[in-house]
UniProtKB/TrEMBL annotation:
Superkingdom: Eukaryota
Organism of derivation: Friedmanniomyces endolithicus
Annotated DNA mismatch repair protein S5 domain residues: 224-316
Record-stated family: Belongs to the DNA mismatch repair MutL/HexB family.
Cell compartments where the protein resides: Nucleus
The protein's name: DNA mismatch repair protein Mlh1
Length: 328
């Protein structure tokens, strides 16, 4: 038997590495949008307008009224690991903003056509730039790639077009635009409920309906009324728990016994990030995985039990007062 000679090991081309990394962070349009929403909120915006075409595969556009981006930073904006939010590794323990590792815009620029228009308060005009593969790119071949001056209001508009145009296998995996839009609407709805003081608008391109529309002044309960419905908004009780032993603070709303819905909805935010699993955690290890959708945590059982206990007590009080009222 003849043993085959080992094949030589070679380094992958940087572009290939970046495309692979991008594909791990952004699997569906909703993941790109989540990063863009978090960036807009990080920038101190009080208004977010989202426009979606073909489930986000053709177009994802988010317009905010936040602090904007300095013109001088536009050249490195979409490089990997460029961020205004993290300077030292130690900052990871106290980071207050959503994103922090400077990978989102870089990733998007590797797998979509990305355009950024932005204006800071002290700039007399807005600046517009296109990106490809992490770098400034000319809008048309032969043109300069430098940002161009244009008219615009303070804030930032990010336009993502033709997502996965250069990742055909991923692109082919999408069955329906409406399925992708449903995921987007769900995610926008979560942030629209959570982000007090921020107005949200989300529209499907060409749709006559309002989509999601939440005014900045809406209370959390009103936000739930708008995004979900009155039936649930009217039957929510508040809970709040502060625990020194495990060092956590939690607050939320939970439906009482008067409400019975067909399906259970759980909107869970840890350190202001929408997360998927049933994890209520004091110190989230936000650095676990680039997607940050899964979270690890300490004392999970104890903390969940404490929160459940608190909710049970509060629900018990509501039921007692109801019984009391019917008897009187
Ligand atoms: P990160 O959020 O982890 O810093 P991103 O790639 O998401 O990385 O963004 C890179 C940087 O671009 C941010 O740190 C921020 O300075 C800037 N930025 C991105 N989006 C916005 C926005 N909507 N408004 C203002 N600045 C933004
Ligand atoms: Mg970010």
């Amino acid at each position: 038997d003849q043993i085959e000679a080992p094949r030589r090991i070679r380094a992958l081309h940087e572009d290939v590495v970046n495309k692979i990394a991008a594909g791990e962070i952004i699997v569906a349009p909703v993941h790109a949008l989540k990063e863009l929403i978090e960036n807009a909120v990080d920038a101190g915006s009080t208004s977010l307008e989202i426009l979606v075409k073909d489930g986000g595969l053709k177009l994802l556009q988010i317009t905010d009224n936040g602090c904007g981006i300095n013109k001088d930073d536009m050249a490195i904006l979409c490089e990997r690991f460029t961020t205004s939010k993290l300077k030292a590794f130690e900052d990871l323990t106290s980071i207050g903003t959503y994103g922090f590792r400077g990978e989102a815009l870089a990733s998007i620029s590797h797998i979509a056509h990305l355009t950024v228009t932005t204006k800071t308060a002290d700039s007399s005009c807005a600046w517009k730039a296109q990106y490809a593969g992490g770098k400034l790119a000319p809008a048309k071949p032969g043109q300069s790639a430098d940002p161009k001056a244009c008219a615009g209001r303070q804030g930032t508009q990010i336009t993502v077009e033709d997502l996965f145009y250069n990742v055909p296998t991923r692109r082919r995996a999408f069955r329906s635009a409406s399925e992708e839009y449903a995921k987007i609407a769900d995610q926008v709805g979560r942030y629209a409920v959570h982000c007090k003081g921020v107005a949200f608008q989300c529209k499907k391109h060409g749709d006559a309906g309002a989509g999601i529309a939440v005014p900045a002044t809406a209370t959390v309960r009103d936000r739930i009324r708008i995004v979900h419905n009155s039936a649930i908004a009217n039957e929510l009780i508040e809970f709040e728990l502060l625990n020194a032993q495990y060092g956590f603070k939690t607050e939320g709303l939970v439906s009482n016994a008067n409400y019975s819905g067909k399906r259970t909805a759980l909107l869970l935010f840890i350190n202001h990030r929408s997360v998927e699993s049933i994890t209520i955690k004091p110190r989230v290890d936000v650095n676990v995985h680039p997607t940050k959708r899964e979270v690890n945590f300490l004392n999970e059982d104890e903390i969940i039990e404490l929160i459940c206990g608190d909710i049970r007590t509060r629900l018990g009080k509501v039921d007692t007062s109801r019984t009391f009222m019917t008897q009187s």
